[in-house]
Amino acid sequence: MKNTQEYTPRVVATEKAKEIIDKLRERNGELMFHQSGGCCDGSQPMCFAKGEFKVGANDVWVGTIHGCDFFMNQDQFDYWKHTHLTIDITEGRGSSFSLEIPLGYRFIVKSRLFTEEEAQNLIPVKNGEEYLEETTVG
What we know:
- Helices cover 25% and strands 33% of the residues.
- The protein has 138 residues and is α/β, with parallel strands linked by helices.
């Protein structure tokens, strides 16, 4: 298997989003993201303290952003598997439990289709159970 740096990432973060992630990490320790695909604010990427959101077989690990694992609900992933996601930040409070909300910001996702070249070299995904098995072994 290739080193993950040799693959095309499925998800990245803007510099502004990284700044907020750094602030949240200072306050909360290690972080993780989950995109549920639900309605309203549930369709926005949500930031949690690592392990606060329980992932399972219906979740897909799609990569990392700024040192944080990023998961997506399987149904949402099936819909977006051909898109490159950029996590950004915008001013304004959402109505979710995401950690950035008290700061007066919310994470948003911007997407575009992968190029043919990118699509040939995507980082492999794994379901949440596979991810947990790999990270707890050892």
